[in-house]
Design goal:
Rossmann fold, 19 strands, ten-stranded mixed sheet, 13 helices, alpha/beta, carbohydrate metabolism, NADP, 2 domains, seven-stranded mixed sheet, Dihydrodipicolinate Reductase, domain 2
């Protein structure tokens, strides 16, 4: 296990909301090396104790169930140095106390990723160090390619971790178990038996003060380009030889390369974009997106995105994959829905609906809708739901991802070619939306969407 974790942008929102609580969970579970250190670097002028006090306050808000002992066990590992993370000389001075390789986490706006990576290259970072990059990986396909080139000039691909915490969610991992550890599903996991697949991440939360990032991204870049396409890859991929990172990611990239985005003349039929207007969600008033603090109405940023794509291979020919995500909706819906085709012949007097498999991502659960003979008339059918609910994971997804980084296991991280394929798929949609080919719809906050 690598013993030095360096966080560039240590005082930012990402560190407070996800990274610091993940480290604390690993410590509480006894999964951190006793010699593990955490060095935070940013422009703030503060000493170690001030940094630790701020971390204690953040953990009190984000992980209030942690014991005082566990909080102290994490914060005692923290140190802070002030530096411009895009300046190689300043970064070298801040990293000067490292006694071995480090895992360097870019908890930074993606607009300065390249500058930070170039500064790391000139900082004298110890050999064997690793790089952790948050999404979004690049601003478009060309930018993602340039960023990959910059990274590969400094780090080997196996030492680069493009993290997507969705891949560590329990039900997401169960997609692999469901498909490849059960004989009953894989023989019917194809276009002959499956009619459609929906991958949905609907949220009730609105902007929550994230205008600085979100207004420049929008729903399609924020969710579809990375998270939802990664879920599609797991659903659509061919069986891997093993769950080793090379085998698993090779099969994912095969699936992503086969994804066909909508043609230019089909954008209006196969894509939708919208943003919320004023309304009420869970009893609270939500202003219109354009009236949220920090939002530039002229950007035409969407808060709802829906795209239907096809996977052009033998297994999935003709099956639509609908990717949908939105904010400030009336009901949280986070699931993968596989709709099977009807049986070829119905001997019963009433028509049985097709089977449906639902893999819910939050909370984690799987259900299968089947048809059985009713309890009254034996020839009348009843719909039955077979449900399996999972206990909460001991570790949150971010902690699983971070543990993989510290152990040097990139299985739950995205490879460079996967990140580029994500941009290849969404860029035609972004262009059509930018050109006004697809109108911007609206929906009241708290509704079911446009």
């Amino acid at each position: 296990m690598i013993q030095n974790l360096v966080v560039l942008g240590a005082s930012g929102d990402l560190s407070a909301r996800y990274l610091l609580p993940a480290v604390a969970r690993l410590h509480a579970a006894g999964l951190l090396d006793d010699r593990q250190t955490i060095l935070g670097i940013d422009r703030d002028e503060r000493d170690d104790e001030e940094f630790r006090a701020a971390a204690r306050a953040r953990l009190a808000r984000k992980a209030p169930d942690l014991s005082a002992r566990d909080v102290r066990g994490v914060t005692d590992r923290l140190r802070h140095r002030s530096a411009d993370v895009t300046d190689a000389a300043q970064l070298a001075a801040a990293l000067g106390d490292l006694t071995g390789p480090a895992a360097v986490y870019l908890a930074l706006p993606n607009t300065i990723f390249q500058g930070a990576v170039r500064a790391l290259a000139g900082s004298g970072l110890p050999a064997g160090s690793r790089l952790i990059v948050e999404k979004p990986f690049g601003a478009d396909l060309a930018d993602a390619r340039r960023l990959n080139e910059t990274i590969h000039g400094c780090f080997a691909e196996d030492d680069v971790f493009r993290v997507d915490h969705f891949l560590a969610k329990q039900t997401v991992l169960n997609v692999l178990g469901l498909r490849f550890a059960n004989r009953v599903f894989e023989p019917v996991w194809n276009a002959l038996h499956i009619a459609s697949v929906d991958i949905v991440w609907d949220e009730t939360v609105a902007l929550k003060g994230r205008a600085g990032y979100y207004d420049g991204a929008g729903a399609l870049k924020d969710m579809t380009q990375n998270h939802l396409l990664q879920l599609l890859a797991l659903v659509a991929m061919e069986p891997p030889t093993s769950t080793g990172h090379r085998d698993l990611r090779d099969r994912k990239i095969d699936a992503l390369r086969a994804v066909r985005p909508p043609a230019a003349d089909q954008m209006g039929a196969l894509t939708r974009r919208a943003r919320y207007t004023a309304g009420r969600v869970d009893g609270r008033s939500v202003p219109a997106y354009v009236d949220e603090p920090g939002v530039d109405p002229g950007r035409d940023t969407e808060t709802f995105a829906e795209v239907t794509v096809y996977v052009d291979n033998w297994r999935w020919a003709g099956v639509p994959f609908r990717l949908r995500t939105g904010k400030a909706l009336g009901q949280a819906r986070r699931e993968i829905v596989v709709r099977f085709r009807p049986v070829p012949h119905q001997p019963f007097p009433d028509t049985a609906p097709a089977n449906r498999l639902r893999m819910r991502l939050d909370p984690d659960a799987i259900s299968l809708d089947i048809n059985l003979n009713g309890s009254g008339d034996p020839f009348c059918l009843e719909r039955v739901h077979l449900d399996a609910r999972f206990p909460a994971q001991q570790l949150p997804p971010y902690a699983h991802v971070l543990l993989g980084v510290l152990h040097g296991d990139p299985t739950l991280s995205i490879r460079g070619d996967e990140a580029e394929e994500g941009w290849r798929i969404v860029e035609p949609v972004l262009k059509a939306w930018s050109d006004g080919t697809v109108p911007m719809l609206t929906y009241p906050a708290g509704s079911g969407g446009p």
